[in-house]
Design brief:
With 494 residues, the protein is of the alpha/beta class. It has four domains: 30-60; 61-183, no CATH class; 189-387, Rossmann fold; 393-454. It has helices spanning 14-38, 41-59, 77-85, 162-182, 217-231, 234-240, 258-269, 284-292, 309-312, 342-350, 374-377, 393-404, 412-421, 426-433, 439-487; strands at 3-6, 9-12, 62-68, 70-71, 74-75, 98-100, 112-114, 120-125, 128-137, 140-141, 146-147, 150-158, 187-193, 198-204, 245-251, 272-275, 298-302, 320-321, 329-330, 360-366, 384-387. The chain is elongated.
């Protein structure tokens, strides 16, 4: 190797140093290529993590907490708390900020801050400096397996602060997040995406409240009192050993306001709504996974439960067993059955899986209560049964005040008399009152609509009588033809 003499010391030249660097680089790249080809990626990642942990343990003064988005079979509530807490700590040290909103009805809605992936957020608490980063691993598809996307928060602090973080800082985050959840201004409605196996949300801005519901005042107040009592009784449910949940059954003819009542309950409690179509769930196993991924302080809505045949079909005698103190339950069906079974549904709303979550309202709606299996109807599963019937006089007056801005009119008495003879749903009454902003025109239209119900009833009765007459005539004709055939000789005379 060429060298330069300096005071008796031989130093290599610049060209020789560059040549040596090039040779070492080539060797390192060859070794790296060989290792990449020979050692699987999972093993390389494992070695890299272990090496990183080793050097961090012995040479670093920092400590790292990892908070993943899932904890075993359910969503990690600590992850949700951090996700709500960190946007309140965005400061001058934050280099990137995620903004957006999901209010598709209002383009000018105020954008909400969020935590962007790989963005560093610094928080200070009781003299500690805490650095947060949100990390993400993309989903992977393979011919034999599928790895879903997952996220995790990385919290870095001084090693000497580890105990204080566990004892003081994390509880502080959870308390702050709980207040954020309780004081939420924006509600969301979720629908389950079967293809992606997750819940998708949009802003829930239904204007219904208990003040605008066309219901009897006593029935309405009874529901409000029951809801208020439920949210205050966390310790009571824990003391008596029951899951903190409440089941409602809303039943009655179509158009009587069942969905509107659900919206009023959500607005009253400030609960998110998870709208689940049982027909879109492939199995009992998927149902458990779907329902355990819902959050606390939420409403699980299952509409038209009678239309899901597997989950409500009548049971045979050999499917019923007296295996609990509350009455008959259902044996588990064959695993080959498709869709959600009644057993799978009952196990979540009143079995061991019902304890996976707190402060939840489960609401079923149906047009035909008589089609439901009695096992669904007992207390503990559907605690409160609310009949949503036709519009009453009190309901009509409330609708008239809301749509027409009047409290009384000379046509009110006539309309109430007609409604007693020819029942109409609140949806039908509201539709007629929306025809005109002039009370006289709208009320006249409602009178004519109710009279039309009488005409429709008469025509229906007439049609049924005519149909019966035609059927009777057909039966008589068949009987006469049959009688003639009996008189016909078996062998013709010559």
């Amino acid at each position: 190797m060429p060298s330069v003499s300096m005071g008796g010391l031989q130093l290599p030249t610049m060209s020789s140093l560059l040549s040596l660097y090039a040779s070492l680089s080539a060797v390192i790249m060859i070794v790296r290529t060989i290792l990449n080809d020979m050692i699987p990626e999972s093993i390389r990642d494992f070695i890299s993590r272990k090496a990183s942990d080793f050097f961090s343990s012995y040479f670093s003064r920092d400590f790292t907490f990892l908070i993943e988005d899932h904890w075993e079979a359910v969503e990690n509530e600590t992850f949700r708390a951090v996700q709500a807490y960190l946007p309140t700590k965005v400061g001058p040290d934050t280099s990137c900020l995620l903004l957006g909103h999901n209010d598709n009805n209002n383009l000018l809605a105020v954008a909400q801050p969020g935590v962007s992936v790989y963005t560093r957020i610094v928080d200070h608490f009781q003299g500690m400096k805490l650095e947060w980063t949100l990390n993400e691993k993309e989903e992977k598809y393979n011919s034999t397996y599928y790895i879903p996307k997952n996220q995790w928060f990385q919290l870095r602090c001084k090693r000497s602060d580890k105990e204080r973080v566990m004892d003081s800082y994390i509880p502080h985050i959870c308390r702050t997040a709980e207040k954020i959840f309780y004081d939420r201004e924006i509600l969301s409605i979720y629908t389950y995406n079967q293809e992606e196996s997750n819940w998708e949300s949009t802003v829930f801005k239904h204007p219904a409240t208990f003040e605008t519901l066309a219901m009897e005042p006593e029935q309405k107040q009874g529901i409000i009192d029951d809801l208020d009592l439920f949210v205050r009784r966390k310790e009571y449910f824990r003391t008596v050993g029951r899951a903190w949940k409440r089941g409602y059954l809303l039943w009655g003819p179509p158009g009587t306001g069942k969905s509107t009542l659900v919206a009023a309950i959500a607005n009253h409690l400030r609960f998110h709504v998870y709208d689940l179509q049982l027909q879109g769930v492939r199995s009992d196993f998927e149902l458990r996974r779907v329902l355990t991924s819902t959050t606390n302080r939420s409403i699980l809505l299952i509409e038209d439960v009678d239309c899901s045949s597997n989950s409500t079909e009548p049971r045979s005698s050999d499917e019923i067993t007296n295996d609990d103190e509350n009455g008959p339950d259902v044996k588990k069906r064959s695993a080959s059955d498709k869709g959600v079974t009644l057993s799978g549904l009952l196990n979540f709303i009143d079995g061991l899986w019902s304890s996976c979550g707190d402060e939840r309202i489960i609401i079923f709606t149906t047009n035909h209560k008589e089609k439901l299996d009695p096992a669904l109807l007992r207390p503990g599963r559907m605690d409160v049964h609310v009949y949503m019937g036709h519009c009453t006089a009190a309901g009509f007056k409330l609708l008239a005040g809301k749509y027409l801005g009047i409290e009384d009119h000379e046509l009110f008495k006539r309309i109430e008399d007609l409604m007693r003879k020819f029942p109409a749903t609140p949806a039908e009454v509201a539709q007629q009152l929306m025809i005109s902003g002039k009370p006289e025109v709208a009320l006249d239209g409602l009178v004519e609509f109710l009279k039309g119900k009488e005409v429709d009833r008469i025509e229906k009765i007439g049609g049924e009588e005519e149909s019966k007459s035609k059927n009777l005539w057909c039966l008589m004709r068949k009987w006469k033809n049959k009688k003639k055939k009996k008189k016909t000789p078996l062998v013709a005379e010559e």
